From TrEMBL:
It is an enzyme of class 2 (transferase). GO terms for biological process: 'de novo' IMP biosynthetic process. It catalyses: N(1)-(5-phospho-beta-D-ribosyl)glycinamide + (6R)-10-formyltetrahydrofolate = N(2)-formyl-N(1)-(5-phospho-beta-D-ribosyl)glycinamide + (6S)-5,6,7,8-tetrahydrofolate + H(+). This is Phosphoribosylglycinamide formyltransferase. Catalyzes the transfer of a formyl group from 10-formyltetrahydrofolate to 5-phospho-ribosyl-glycinamide (GAR), producing 5-phospho-ribosyl-N-formylglycinamide (FGAR) and tetrahydrofolate.
Length: 221
């Protein structure tokens, strides 16, 4: 892929987009971003990961960032008197890295008003179900319990609801009969294979091409 001048994401200068990625766990989606950018080069991909943030310490997601030489920060709810103070601290920690896009890649916290006021319209989340079905923290388990035969993943912009923001892209995964035996672990792994490719593709296209959000529709230019 040849490097080309990028059409900016809203409000940003032309050039390589700055990504802050938020994680709470294993960070395989983060790793997919890091690997793709290392392979393609930040100019060709259109963005680079400038920092990784987490709501807890000691997770593999942070270790992945450290191995890649990416700065990290941790902002724990329990270190703050109120949820609002945590939200303000998270907002400042992210803002310090001047991101063009913030990516929630397995970040298991709902952000608050201040975060959305600062990063609304450029905060992307990936969810392991086909929204608007099965929002929340247990998308895989809930889909399986409902008995759906297909599920998948959704990459969307975050708004002030739980997994309700404008959808950018979705990927479909079939449910197998045996998925009920392990409580959805194998299904989640198959979803994550699709999800990693989808997230890498979407973030790159947003950064390279620019986009606009028209109501519930996301138009990548
Ligand atoms: C992903 O499947 C992501 O969709 C999910 O956590 C996983 C993180 O995997 N997020 C949610 O469930 C948010 N509601 P990873 O840490 O290996 O990237």
């Amino acid at each position: 892929m040849a490097a080309k001048p990028v059409a900016p994401v809203p409000g940003r200068r032309p050039g390589t987009g700055r990504l802050v990625v938020l994680v709470s766990g294993s960070g395989t989606n983060l790793q997919a971003l890091l690997d793709t950018i290392a392979e393609a080069g930040a100019d060709a991909y259109g963005a680079e990961v400038v920092a990784v943030g987490a709501d807890r310490e000691g997770i593999e997601g942070l270790a992945r960032a450290e191995r890649a030489g990416v700065p990290t920060f941790v902002c724990r709810v329990r270190d703050h008197a109120t949820r609002e103070e945590w939200d303000a601290a998270l907002t400042e920690a992210v803002a310090a890295h001047e991101p063009d896009l913030v990516v929630s890649a397995g970040f298991m916290k709902i952000v608050g008003k201040e975060f959305l006021a600062r990063f609304g319209g450029r905060f992307v989340n990936t969810h392991p179900a086909l929204l608007p079905s099965f929002p929340g923290a247990h998308g895989v388990r809930d889909a399986l319990a409902y008995g759906v035969r297909v599920t998948g993943c959704t990459v969307h912009f975050v708004d002030d609801g739980v997994d309700t923001g404008p959808i950018i892209a979705q990927g479909v995964v079939e449910v197998r009969d045996e998925d009920h035996e392990d409580g959805g672990a194998a299904l989640h792994e198959r979803i994550k294979e699709v999800e990693r490719r989808l997230l890498v593709d979407v973030v790159g296209r947003l950064a390279r091409n620019g986009y606009r959000i028209e109501g519930r529709k996301v138009v990548i230019q």
